[in-house]
């Protein structure tokens, strides 16, 4: 069996981070990072227009995330059912509207993208890249939802590129 290869990332400097600064537009709304997109749509999902508006005005992903934690009428089960789709759509716009970011994403071909965050066991693996347990999916402490979404998105974009040529 072929050994799985990983592309690790963590922190804002990585183009794969939801906090990485970039501009993209969806439905005539401009976002400054995919974190802002995710938190905005989280607020809309629970019909919290006031917080959604504040998230669009917030300039930093830290502030956007803090506002996202205050969304009124939040329901964890509903969020878990919808969050992956929301994050996928935001990242699709982010990467397809920013050619330099798209090139970086496509260069990960043949690997699974992994958010090596020691503090996030939902979107990341709950481990740092230099932790020996990060080298095997079986020993991860987290779900790596963001990494899985980015890997799936990359595969879709590679397939679409090959169909065009």
From TrEMBL:
InterPro entries: NADAR, YbiA-like_sf. It holds the Pfam family NADAR. It comes from the Bacteria. It catalyses: 2,5-diamino-6-hydroxy-4-(5-phosphoribosylamino)-pyrimidine + H2O = 2,5,6-triamino-4-hydroxypyrimidine + D-ribose 5-phosphate; 5-amino-6-(5-phospho-D-ribosylamino)uracil + H2O = 5,6-diaminouracil + D-ribose 5-phosphate. Coiled coil: none annotated. Residues 8-157 form the NADAR domain. This is NADAR family protein. It comes from Fulvivirga marina.
């Amino acid at each position: 069996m072929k050994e799985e290869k990983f592309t690790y990332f963590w922190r804002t400097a990585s183009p794969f981070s939801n906090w990485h600064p970039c501009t993209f537009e969806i439905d005539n709304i401009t976002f400054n990072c995919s974190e802002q997109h995710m938190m905005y749509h989280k607020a809309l999902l629970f019909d919290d227009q006031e917080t959604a508006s504040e998230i669009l005005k917030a300039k930093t992903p830290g502030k956007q995330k803090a506002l996202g934690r205050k969304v009124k009428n939040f329901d964890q089960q509903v969020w878990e059912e919808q969050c992956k789709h929301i994050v996928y759509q935001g990242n699709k716009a982010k990467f397809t509207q920013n050619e330099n970011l798209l090139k970086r994403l496509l260069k990960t071909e043949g690997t699974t993208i992994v958010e090596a965050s020691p503090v996030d066991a939902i979107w990341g693996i709950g481990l740092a890249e230099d932790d020996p347990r990060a080298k095997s999916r079986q020993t991860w402490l987290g779900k790596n939802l963001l990494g899985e979404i980015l890997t799936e998105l990359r595969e879709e974009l590679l397939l679409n590129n090959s169909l065009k040529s």
